[in-house]
Write a sequence for this structure.
């Protein structure tokens, strides 16, 4: 069964420093997608970054980068130059693949990591 | 990116009543989904809203409890029926395949539901 694991319930980082949020996944499908979302206290889910299983390079979006290590089945999110506004819950998710279909759209989520940025 | 709106943004309801949540997207999308996030928990997919046919429900969710409509490619509704306090959650609409790419999946702002 497919599974996403985020082992860090909570993390602290000093403003302007970099932080890495861990995510490991388990799947037997060769084709899958990995997502990171930010959820502030308002409850909305903000899409941050996507990594496809066949992508050769690690995804980057501004201050966000994804450290994709396929053999280890890990997809850690790196946030550079942390800002106070980065304080939020962060979710790693995997898109379930279906044989013969491009994708189902069903996302399987980890339990999340709460990040607090200290001034 | 797709702009997704949901109504209502929050509500407080009495047990035994029903609430219909609306999801509107600013562009036509192939796939629309409804997720639930119980307090302190992660997100769980309720169902896939299919245009022109019945929704596809995940294990543990049934049509009688969570009827879904999708009359066109930009709109869907989720009804939470015969509510109990256990239904208190954030309900989120999600769309995938925007702009012709499958590398994105966006969420609406969510509906915070409290059942008393």
């Amino acid at each position: 069964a497919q599974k996403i694991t985020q082992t860090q319930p909570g993390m602290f980082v000093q403003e302007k420093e970099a932080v890495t949020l861990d995510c490991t996944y388990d799947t037997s499908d060769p084709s899958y997608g990995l997502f990171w979302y930010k959820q502030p206290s308002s409850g909305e889910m903000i899409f941050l970054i996507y990594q496809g299983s066949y992508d050769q390079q690690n995804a980057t979006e501004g201050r966000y980068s994804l450290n994709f290590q396929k053999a280890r089945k890990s997809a850690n999110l790196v946030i550079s130059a942390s800002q106070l506004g980065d304080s939020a819950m962060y979710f790693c998710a995997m898109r379930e693949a279906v044989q013969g279909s491009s994708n189902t759209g069903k996302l399987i989520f980890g339990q999340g990591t709460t990040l607090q940025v200290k001034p | 990116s797709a702009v997704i709106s949901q109504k209502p943004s929050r509500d407080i309801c009495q047990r035994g009543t029903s609430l219909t949540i609306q999801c509107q997207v600013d562009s036509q999308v192939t796939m629309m989904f409804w997720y639930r996030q119980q307090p302190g928990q992660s997100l769980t997919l309720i169902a896939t809203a299919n245009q022109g046919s019945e929704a596809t429900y995940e294990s543990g969710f049934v049509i009688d409890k969570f009827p879904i409509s999708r009359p066109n490619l930009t709109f869907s509704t989720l009804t939470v029926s015969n509510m109990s306090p256990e239904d208190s959650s954030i309900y989120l609409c999600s769309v995938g395949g925007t702009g012709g790419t499958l590398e994105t999946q966006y969420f609406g702002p969510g509906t915070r539901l409290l059942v008393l």
Q: What stands out?
A: Chain B has a mean pLDDT of 91.
